[in-house]
Amino acid sequence: MSSNADIYHEMIVEYSRHPSNFGKIENPDVTYHDSNPLCGDSIDIFMNINDNKVSDIKFHGRGCAICMACSSVMTEIVKGKTIDDVKKIQKDDILGELGLQNLQAVRIKCALLSLKVLKYAIYTYLANHLNDTNADALKQEASALY
Ligand code: FES
What we know:
Strand order of the largest sheet: 1-2-3
Bound molecules: FE2/S2 (inorganic) cluster
Mean pLDDT: 92
Shape: globular
Order of helices and strands: HEEEHHHHH
CATH topology: Sufe protein. Chain: A
């Protein structure tokens, strides 16, 4: 019988080979790009937002298996959610899906790169489209991820 660790490992390998929502959106409502300063790997996120909900999300770029798996999980969690619900997503929501809660510090940047990009993307959308003055808290939250 497989242990939880084996199952999570298989999930990470599978997501890295066949990432979910991988690609680009033409003329997205918002896009954001950032990179992992340790390795230079980078992620772009593209989102369309309708009726205050993320109607579509895709990510593109390159990263290690953990980065690709976490980016995939992040897009699966976000798709269809309201902006308010997306704002509430925390790092453990992503890490927990793949059993990565105790990840060593050096790999945490791999796991959280896409969440950081997501938070900045939502911040950018709120600041540009809705003139939301509370958006700055989201920017600070993204900066504090690592
Ligand atoms: Fe580059 Fe993990 S080694 S994102």
